Amino acid sequence: MTARAEHHSLYGGGPLSWLTTVDHKRIGVLYGVTALLYFVVGGFEAILIRLQLASPESTVLGAESFNQMFTMHGTTMVFLVLMPLAAALFNFMVPLMIGARDVAFPRLNAFSYWTFLFGSILLNLSLFIGQAPDAGWFGYANLTSKQFSPGMGIDFWVLSLLVMGVASLAAGVNFVVTILNMRAPGMSLMRMPLFVWMALIVQILILLAFPAITVGLVFLLFDRFFGTHFYIPAAGATPLLWQHLFWIFGHPEVYILILPSFGIVSEVLPSFARKPLFGAPFVIFSGILIAFLGFGVWSHHMFASGLGPVPDTAFSLATMLIAIPTGVKIFNWIATLWNGHIVYRTPLYFAVGMVALFIIGGLSGIMHSSPPIDLQQTDTYFVVAHLHYVFFGGTVFGLFAGIYYWWPKITGRLLGERLGTLHFWLMMVGMNLTFFPMHFLGMDGMPRRIYTYAPDMGWDDWNLAATVGAFVIALSVLVFYVNAVKSARSGAPAGPDPWDAATLEWTTSSPPPEYNFAITPVVNSARPFWLHKYGPTRAISTRTREEGTPPQPDAPVETIDLPSPSWWPLVASAGLGILMGGALVGLGVVLLGAAILVVGVFAWALQPLERPGHPAFGPGAPA
Amino acid sequence: MTAHATTYGIPHRKMAMWVFIGSECMFFGSLIATYLAYEGRSLTGPYPSEILNIPVTSVSTFVLLMSSLAMVLALDAVQRADRRQSALWLLGVMLLGATFLGFQVFEFTHFYGEGLSLEQNLFGATFFVLTGFHGAHVTVGVIWMTTLLVLLLLGKLPPERSLDVEVAGLYWHFVDVVWIVIFTVVYLIQ
After folding, report:
1. Per the CB < 8 Å rule, is B20 touching A173?
2. B1 lies in some domain
3. Does residue B92 form part of some domain?
4. Cβ of A174 and B16 within 8 Å?
5. Residue at B171 is within a domain
6. Residue B112: which region, alpha, beta or left (left: phi > 0; alpha: psi -120 to 50)?
7. Measured CA angle at A112 (ends A110, A118), to 5 deg
8. Residue A541 pairs with which residues in a beta bridge?
9. CB 3.0 to 4.6 Å from A106: which of A22, A230, A456, B153, for a disulfide?
10. What is the domain partition of chain A in residue ranges?
């Protein structure tokens, strides 16, 4: 495969080259673009929900459509927006931040993206046949049984989540190996950037949490397709089995969604406060502790199911414990800003906004750790307020901090500061206007997931305010898209290091070359690029990997092996998608999908991975 | 190949398999936990004590465990570049795995004939899904071994590529270990 080995820019090459790409940066861009498209879809669903609830006894949506909309909104935002948006930044940034040329398994990486894409398409196809899933994003049994959900909506939901689970697990294996095993020489674990640390923790959480929901979904699949009774009380089963399996996944999933933001904020604050992250090891170990404790708190989602005093107490205490490492992080971020020479730019606004809003979501979370209070709030709008302060205030603000921070690296151009600031303030106001009133509504007893309410409940004003807020959020997102398009068309060139930052990704050009680093960097600090720029000696050494070999300017530096583009990950993903989607059509389609999958996997396994040394960097080429 | 030096000196694929196995532990753990949670909750028969045949499954368990021995010998032979022994032991793993699957097919058909099906009761559902997923893993392993054997016979499995066999071996041993747990939980402790 030497034909296409020409040095090409990240966005060069025809559209076909995007189908076969195994470049982690391109796959990151694919994840990001897809997630930002679904952000519009999920946001549109939210707007419909808010329109229906803007006034009492409204008829914008019927009850059935309303159920479909909140289910699709939740599922879309969690699995099709927040996770892939984090995956986009992991993909693009992690290899750059650890000084690697790609991920450990570039083709598996492509497989993850395509599998995610086909799974997400399968989910959204349900909208086109008018039978979208309607049992909520956590799809409680036995509402999801054939008896109570006879349509195809739940089938779409189960199958697409299983497909996307495969994508997440494949990416999990890939990134754990990448981060552990592909760090530049000298980058010990404690020198690893915080974002990479959080990526590592998130991938471990995915690997340990997704099997539980996979098993839960498999049981549901068997119940619906093969007549088993895993969740049917009449056969002696307990629907609580689903709740346990779902939340054993579901609570770590909350950390899968928030920890990327924690990582981003831990990168952005030091860059814009012009000083190192305060107590970085504490932030790292707090992240580990949050992830560890996250596996021991799932039943706090189930206090209302009546587990009994002993489990309630245990899960309540474990939940309260999580406040400690989370609080540690928040104080570390604040201490990072303290006495910093703060540069006021959009990434900083979003990072600080994330910390502030996450504190509100975290505090209402601690309230829920107390079973008696939780029982008052379960299934009310108070929970909706809480989870949106965490997911929107925490995750979305954090991800936007990351997008504004790394956009120049990804595209080579700066985003507009004025539009960025406008985006931030609109989103800040809109977010609080939408979700803060939900605390009051919940306290007043408004249940979540009702499609309408009576006019004499006293809920009109706050609901109207929330709907207005939703439109302000929509406007803020529009401002972001305008900013993005303007930047892509005519943004100011970013240069390699627009923020004067500390980590390795800023040592490459923007966007980086296909091979990321011409010479593998050697790291001897947690902030290698700052030390390089401001330290007594140049910290990023240009030695080759053999210890003690002095740099020789004219000598061949190192051969760059890059993986060949391949169709087979796409073929294998398509096979998997057809196999699972075929369950809704007939056995023939399932078998066809299986055949394509097998062909794809075998052709993939037998295709050689690497193309020979990059011609631009053969012997004697300039370093 | 200095550019491919890894941080811990462990090949990527080997580390990936260990990471994957960690994830698989949660997968089978969830299936086994469900089996235990639903044990004794079936409202109608057949019940485990009426139908499970410990001696027969002990034989198939023995067969599967012996396949792990063959796997170790196969890897050793590939590393020593002993093609005859490599082929012999890879074939052994394959056939022993296939024999285990044969036992499972026999057992499933027999149970089905006795009235145990997925729909019949919770025991049927949990038993067939748990052991069925294990059987699917063995099937993947047998296909993998067959592929390795074909590669070996084509001369494409020299000692430098013994990692291919080692990674497959990790998977195979894991699938065996899981069976020990399943056999203990489902058959021995009733």
Report:
1. yes
2. no
3. yes
4. yes
5. yes
6. alpha
7. 100
8. A522
9. A22
10. 33-502
